Amino acid sequence: MRIYFTVIGLAGVLLMGACRSQQTVSRRNAGYNAAVVQQRADSLFFAAQRSKMMGDYRTAITQYADYLRFNRNNPTVHYELARLFMETQRPGNALVFARRAVNLDPNNHWFRVTLADAYAMNQQFDSAAIVFGTLSQNFPDNEDYLYNEGVMQSKANKPAAALATFNQLEQKVGVVEELIYQKQKLLLKMSKIDEAAAEIKKLIAQEPQEIRYYYLLAEIYDANDHLSDATTVYHTILAKDPGNPRALIALASYAQKNNDTVTYWDNLSKAFANSDYSIDEKVAYVYPYLQMLSLDSAKLDEGLKLTSLIIKAHPADAKAYALRGDMFSQADVIDSAEANYKKALSLDDTRFSVWYQLMWIYSRKDDPTALLKLSNEVTGKFPKEFMGYYFKGVASFLLQQYPDAINSLNTALEIGSGEKKFLGDIYSLLGDAYHAIGQHRQSDSSYDHALLLRPKDAMILNNYSYYLSLRGENLEKAAAMSKLSLDLEPDSPTYMDTYAWILFRQERYGDAREWIEKALQYPDAQKNPNVLEHYGDILFNLKEVTKAVEYWQMAKDKGASSVGLARKIAEKRYIQ
After folding, report:
1. What residues have CB less than 8 Å from 129, skipping those under 6 apart?
2. Sign of the CA dihedral 408, 413, 418, 423?
3. pLDDT digits over 6-49, tens only?
4. Are 420 and 456 in contact (CB under 8 A)?
5. Residues 74, 75, 79, 80: what is their CA dihedral angle, to the nearest 10 degrees?
6. Would you report the helix, strand and coil content of the chain in percent, each value rounded to 5?
7. What does the alpha-carbon distance between residue 474 and residue 560 come to, in Å, rounded to a whole number?
8. Considering only CA atoms, which of 223, 224, 222 is closest in space to residue 237?
9. Among 25, 29, 95, 181, which is least packed by CB within 10 angstroms?
10. Is pLDDT larger for residue 404 or for residue 27?
């Protein structure tokens, strides 16, 4: 609206100026020549046309607006501006200029079509329908106007009026697919199920061999709980096409709802055996079983049976084996998952997602040697994939190859396309690796980055605070982080031990004893040599020497190998 009034305002000013100028010219016999003005106007018009053809709509709009300074009553220019404002998604301006074009030339049907489009763009569907209705009366041979009138009435939420318009059109053109679709949608909206079905039956009667019309009819029945009618239609489809997978799967789902497992598997097996039924559609059908496994373990057998059917129909397609691998992986049957992923890769080694799943399997099998070998292969094949370097870093760390781990993890960070979750894991693991080689500044920096990404990750808080306590540095920060980890996971004996040890390093021996004894209430802590040794250290500093030596000995028996443990036992004194 603002642009419109600005243009008109400028035109008014210029016209007033022109009048005064003409009076002056008439008085002085000088000034603008009408031919020169017309030449300037024509130049602007053709420049605007060129800009529009070149796709420079902003410049075209400016040039057409400049033209209006010379001739504001040219309907074509208003029409062109309306179309341009539509192209540039400015519906309000489009409507202003479309109205102006029609007012100036009400007999031009293209101007009226543009006005209807502008109304529709402004969601004034009633008004758009009225314009198309007038056009259809003025141009009765143009069926598009009558069709668009019905569409606009439908959008204006006037289904009865739209249906009447479409019926009028059908009398003129006969049974036409798009028209029938529009009518059946309106009838469904009006809850007239049988009438909607009758419309699709018109198409079937006209082309009885067109299967998709039967699908549409069955879907109408199915969506409105007319299952017996839908079943009849699907059987009709099978009579025409016995192996039709879509009909078979629909009938299988009905049988499943009725607990008819024999019919269910019979229909499903026939559908999946059809090699013309694409593997992508089969995978999409089976994929929800992966989500259901976490809720119902019984779904595993059913899902595996379906993947067997896919493999039988598509024995050379890697997707079939990858899906079966996913199924086993989700059920934590990792050896079978590994075998299927390897088979998938033997058929198609270009899909990184399968390599990723195999690396994940090796990490779960706690086989860092195999994981390192595989991740080396993956990073060679996919040098820009973040997760290949992540798993390579994990494997190197587990094999105590800390510099290699640091290098791989930093490469993953340089790629920088990983999920936030894994970025936190990388920084945390980098903190561990730097700590292992004594680069404490880099270790702390890595952990600080990890906590920026995951400030409430209990494991990161625990490990960082424990490393600080081992060095006796930033113990207040360590205590705060450790306490937060316990707030997040209050039943973790490991985190209790860490907090106790930090309190010990702060010489708060009584508090340290309280927390480590909480930890020792858990069976896992009673078997942990580090926890036992820590308890001995705390007891010694509480002057309970005999009991301290007892726990040091227990720690040694459980496999503790810390520097100085043997001397603690032999000399019966705490050695830091």
Report:
1. 149, 152, 153, 156, 158, 161
2. positive
3. 222 223 322 233 333 344 444 443 344 777 778 888 888 899 89
4. no
5. -20
6. 80, 0, 20
7. 27
8. 222
9. 29
10. 404
What residue segments make up the domains of the chain, in order of their start? 527-576
- pLDDT tens across 408-444, in order? 999 999 987 666 778 999 999 999 999 999 999 999 9
How far apart CA 382 and CA 373 sit, in angstroms, is 14
Q: In whole angstroms, what is the distance from residue 223 CA to residue 230 CA?
A: 9
Q: Which residue has the tokens 């306590």?
A: 469
Radius of gyration of the chain from its Cα atoms, rounded to whole angstroms: 39
CA distance 490 to 62: 68
Rounded to whole angstroms, the Cα distance separating 113 from 322 reads: 54
Following DSSP, what letter does each residue of 423-482 receive, concatenated? HHHHHHHHHHHHHHTT-HHHHHHHHHHHHHH-TT-HHHHHHHHHHHHHHT-SHHHHHHHH
DSSP 483-512: HHHHHHSTT-HHHHHHHHHHHHHTT-HHHH
Q: Report the alpha-carbon angle 327-329-330, nearest 5.
A: 65
Report whether 335 contacts 294 (CB < 8 A).
no
pLDDT tens-digit profile of 139-153? 999 999 999 999 999
- Tell me the pLDDT tens digit for each residue of 269-278: 899 888 888 9
In the Cβ-directed half-sphere of 47, how many Cα atoms lie within 13 Å? 15
Q: State how far the Cα of 469 lies from the Cα of 497, in Å rounded to an integer.
A: 12
- From residue 443, give the alpha-carbon distance in Å to each of 108, 330, 446: 77, 34, 5
How far is Cα 263 from Cα 255, in angstroms, rounded to an integer?
Answer: 6
Closest CA to 203 of 172, 167, 177: 177
With 60 as the cut, is the pLDDT of residue 3 above it?
no
The residue among 156, 154, 180 whose CA lies nearest residue 167 is: 180
Q: Quote the pLDDT of residue 370.
A: 95
Residue type, 146: L
Residue 118: pLDDT over 80: yes
d(CA 229, CA 212): 16
Residue 30: how many CA atoms within 13 Å on its side-chain side? 1
Residues across the chain: 576
What single DSSP character describes residue 419?
A: -
Spatial CA neighbour of 111 closest among 153, 152, 78: 78
Q: Please give the DSSP secondary-structure letter assigned to residue 112.
A: H
Provide the pLDDT for residue 295: 64
pLDDT for the residue 484: 97
Strand, coil or helix: 562: coil
Torsion sign across C-alpha atoms 34, 40, 45, 49: positive
Report the amino acid identity of residue 107. N
Report yes or no: 117 and 151 within 8 Å, Cβ to Cβ: no
